[in-house]
Amino acid sequence: SVGIALYPDDESDSDALIRHADQAMYLAKRGGRNRLQFFDTKQEQHLRERQAIIARIRKALEADQFRLYYQPKVDLRKGRVVGVEALARWQHPELGLLAPKDFLPLIEESDLSVAFGEWVLKTALGQLVEWQNQGLDLDVSVNINISPRHLLSGDFESELSALLQKYPQLKPQQLELEVLESTDVADPTRAREVIQACRNLGVTVALDDFGTGYSSLQYLKQFPVDTLKIDQTFIRDMLDDPEDMTIVEGVLSLATVFRMEVVAEGVETLAHGLALIYLGCDLAQGYAIARPMPAEKLPTWVDTWTPDAQWSAACQSSLDQADLPILLAGLLHQREFDSVRRTLDRGTSLPDRHSHDDPRGCHFKRWMESRGVYRYQALHEFTETNHAHREADQLIECVRHTYQNGQSGMARRLFAQLEQAQNRLESSLGQLTQALKSISGQDNQRIPPA
Ligand code: C2E
Ligand code: CA
Ligand code: CA
Q1: Which one of 49, 74, 175, 426 has the fewest CB atoms closer than 10 angstroms to its CB?
Q2: CA torsion 49→50→55→60, rounded to 10°?
Q3: CA angle (330, 77, 270) in 5-degree steps
């Protein structure tokens, strides 16, 4: 086995050169012997840089340079703040405020992950007590992200229990641990034990980024959690991508069956919030509600936050839950119409459209052909909405088709027709909604002809 260090590629002094050659020889031996191995200066340098950053992170932890920002979690239906998620930031003396992606991966790889995780837990619980002492008029809980490494470290549950005893003014239910669904947990049996032990303490557990990892029923059975946090990528794209919408709906049904709570992350617009209300997903987090903020900003935010008027109106709608999908269908249709309009205005290329033979493609069709036909066939508002929808839908197809064939003049003329059809759809949908409201709460039988 031969190890080789090359000067001057490797600019070290003679002692270091010999040490490098020695290290390379060690690798040659480990690689099966009877071979030669060059010392890799680049890798060495990379390693050294990483160690330097880790050392800096360690110092930063000692120097109290990390901060927790808090992002509110709200109940859209009740219009209340129900909790906050603690999110780490590094207040770097030269580089300013750094996001987790800039330091967390290094922490996770190093032996710092437990110390860091403990700092997060301690700081967040301390903050919760401070808010309570300030009389923050809320029974909020705090969500804390726990790295798999921290969760599986020595005795996570007894550390947690000791910490909770330090804060007798807090109820354990005010703490929720977020465990990533996407991580390949090294020791599933142990992870399960820890999760169960934490829940026995009264602390709740959420599966974070749900849908991106295993998401198998087996996994849910293995990890007895209280909450699923639907990953933000699904929420972000659900209004335009039927596959993502299907996943969101699937997670919601799964949660109902398993009796778990669901939180939607990444609610970035009003429309996203509306869609979630129609879907019956009331708990939400996202930029449309609030960005993560420093602890001192939270009390004022909580005092002044009110849900958007459109959200409140949607919640007060006296429709039966089973009829809400018709409003969702209306929202999605409007969005598709707007997207066609934008495309024509800008002369850009059209986004894909789901085939309408695909039952997942169109919420209107789905509702109309199931509950709609079964229960409301006799209502003239139903028949009109059905017609209006078919017309608008076909016109969207036509406009798209002609536009894609380069006949933009024709596409524009058809769009004028589509605009009228869209108006008719909106008005008949409004009338149908009124009709449904007036009979909501009646037993779920077929409505007889007038
Ligand atoms: P996460 O747990 O999924 O946290 C949500 C992330 O999405 C946060 O990013 C948050 O600022 C961001 N976010 C919230 N609402 C929206 C929205 O409407 N749109 C978009 N585009 N983004 C939104 P952040 O703070 O950069 O954190 C990134 C990840 O780092 C977190 O993802 C979490 O996995 C991890 N992390 C953060 N703090 C800690 C910590 O203290 N401990 C551990 N172990 N991990 C942490
Ligand atoms: Ca999280
Ligand atoms: Ca997440």
Answers
A1: 49
A2: 110
A3: 50
Testing ligand 1's pocket by substitution, the residue of 68, 69, 73, 87 carrying the most ligand atoms inside 8 A of its CB is: 87
Whole-angstrom CA distances from 167 to 36, 122, 125, 160, 249 are: 60, 10, 8, 11, 39
Angle 242-258/270-279 helices, nearest 10 degrees? 40
Residue pLDDT tens, the chain, 450 long: 999 999 998 888 999 999 999 999 999 999 999 999 999 988 888 988 999 999 999 999 999 999 999 999 999 999 999 999 999 999 999 999 999 999 999 999 888 999 999 999 999 999 999 999 988 866 789 999 999 899 998 889 999 999 999 999 999 999 999 998 766 677 888 888 999 999 999 999 999 999 887 767 777 888 889 999 999 999 999 998 888 998 999 999 999 999 999 999 999 999 999 999 999 999 999 999 999 999 999 999 999 999 999 999 988 888 888 888 899 999 999 999 999 999 999 998 888 877 666 666 688 888 888 888 888 989 999 999 999 999 999 999 999 999 999 998 999 999 999 999 999 999 999 999 999 988 887 777 788 777
**Which atom from ligand 1 is nearest to the alpha carbon of 209?**
3
Cα 278 to ligand 1 centroid, rounded to whole Å: 26
> How far does the centroid of ligand 2 lie from the alpha carbon of residue 208, in Å?
5
Q: Which residues' Cβ are closer than 6 Å to ligand 1?
A: 71, 86-88, 99-100, 104, 120, 145-147, 208-209, 232, 265-268, 285-287, 292
Rounded to whole angstroms, the Cα distance separating 331 from 334 reads: 5
Q: Which atom of ligand 1 is the closest one to the Cα of 113?
A: 44
Distance CA 425, CA 381 (A): 11
Select from 148, 217, 153 the least CA-distant residue to 177: 148
Q: Is 2 left (phi over 0), alpha (psi -120 to 50) or beta?
A: beta
pLDDT tens-digit series, residues 328-357: 999 999 999 999 999 999 998 888 877 666
Cα distance between residue 364 and residue 77, in whole Å: 24
Which run of H or E residues covers position 141? strand 141-146
* Residue spans of alpha helices (H) in 63-154: 104-109, 113-133, 148-151
